[in-house]
Amino acid sequence: MSGATGTADFFYREAQRLGYVARSAFKLIQIQKQHKLIAPGAAVLDLGCAPGAWLQVACQNLGPLEKGGVVIGLDVKKVKVPSAHCDSRVRTVCADVMALMKQQARAMSPQERGFSVILSDMCPVVSGITTKDEAISCELGMRALSLAIGKIKLKESADYSITMEKFQSSTGPDPDEDGVLRRGGNLVIKFLENEDVPGFSRFCKEKFKKVSLLRPKATRSSSREIYLICEGLR
After folding, report:
1. The whole model's pTM is what?
2. Among residues 190, 205, 209, 217, which one is catalytic?
3. What band does 126 get if pLDDT is binned at 50, 70 and 90?
4. 153 carries an active-site annotation
C-alpha cells in the first residue's frame, strides 16, 4: 500500500502489534522523542484521554515504579485504564474539563502540588462546519491553557490580544489566579489549524521558555490537527 491510506494503515497495524489502544499513541511518542517532555517520576495530567493511548505512552516514560510519578486521565466519558503499558500509577477521572475548578484539578496531583506535564488531546466532534469546528477547538485549547497557567492577563498592545480575547469566556468557571502546571513544567495542546493558532503561539512564548508547533507523522493526511508544544513554564 502507498499514499495516505498506506501510512494510516501502517500506524494502525503498529498500534495493534505493540498493544496500544489507538494509533494516536505514535503522536505522543514522536513528541516525547523530540522534546523529552515527560521525565521519570513526572506528574502528568492528560486532558481528553479517551481511548487511553496517551495514558499508555505517558506511563511508559515515567520510568520504573520506584521512580514514582502519576498519570491522571480526564475525559467527559468514562475511560478504562488500558491493561498494556500502564501500571498502578495511572488512573482516570470522568469529568468535564470546561466545568472543572482548578482546585479540583490540583487535588488530583501528588501532594496537591500540581502537575509537571499537562497534555491536551481534546478535539471537537467534527461537524464539517469549518468555522464552528475551529472555534470549539480554540475554546478547548484556551481552557487547557488557563487550567495550566491560571488567570490569563492580556497586554492591550500585544498582537495576540484580539485572538485571545475571542476565547476568554472559555478560561473556566473559577477565578483562581494560579494554574495547576508547576514552574518549569511542559504543556501540549492540540488545535485544528486555523488563523488563531499563531496568536496562541505568540502568547505562550511570553509564558514558556520554548514554544513550537508540530504536525506528527502519525496524523492522517486528511486531518488539520497540529500540536502547540510549550516547554519550561516561566
Report:
1. 0.94
2. 190
3. confident
4. no
